[in-house]
Amino acid sequence: MNTNKNKDLIRRWIAFANEGFGGSFDQFIAPDYVGHLGATEMDRSELERLERQFSLAFPDAHYTVDDMIAEGDRVVLRTTARATHRGEFERIAPTDRAVEFTGLVVYRIHGERIIESWGEIDFLRLIRALRTA
């Protein structure tokens, strides 16, 4: 496993996210991808749907790479997201509030694409920021 190549894939994935996921997921996500987000499991099409839906609600979302560690076929990413709530999210109408939340994701790479991921995103912090007057 080339850990530098795997880390570069995740850096490009984050750049793609920072551009609002405007394009094909093909170069990043394997067709048989499985994602684990908390207790939820998703396939590639569900990942695409969720990421694009989030981008509509937070069109200026920007993710920073706070830490990245790679070993074997795994890359661990600690990230901070900053965005403005400009579209409906989780039945919350746009608030134009600036929000910040963190995430920790473990990616498994196979064939130069992400084939599996395990994520813990601080959505509670995000929801609280949107509901606070």
Descriptors for this entry?
6 strands; Nuclear Transport Factor 2, Chain: A; alpha+beta; 133 residues; globular; six-stranded mixed sheet
What does this 3D model show about the protein?
This protein has helices spanning 3-18, 44-57, 123-131; strands spanning 29-37, 40-43, 62-71, 74-84, 98-110, 113-121. By secondary structure, it is an alpha+beta fold. The chain has a single domain, classed as Nuclear Transport Factor 2, Chain: A (Roll). A 6-stranded mixed sheet has the order 2-1-6-5-4-3. β1 (29-37) and β2 form a beta hairpin. It is globular, with a radius of gyration of 15 Å. The mean pLDDT is 96.
Task: Sum this structure up briefly.
This protein is an alpha+beta fold and 133 residues long.
Poorly predicted runs are: none
CATH class: Alpha Beta
Portion of residues in beta strands equals: 35-45%
CATH architecture: Roll
What structural class should be given to the helix and strand makeup?
alpha+beta
Instruction: Compute the number of helices.
Output: 3
Could you tell me the number of beta strands? 6
Give the total of domains: 1
SSE pattern, N- to C-terminal? HEEHEEEEH
Task: Kindly report the average pLDDT value.
Answer: 96
Q: Measured on Cα atoms, how large is the radius of gyration?
A: 15 Å
The biggest beta sheet is recorded as:
6 strands, mixed
Q: Report the helical percentage.
A: 25-40%
CATH topology: Nuclear Transport Factor 2, Chain: A
Order of strands in the sheet with most strands:
2-1-6-5-4-3
Give the N-terminus to C-terminus distance in angstroms.
Answer: 49 Å
Shape: globular
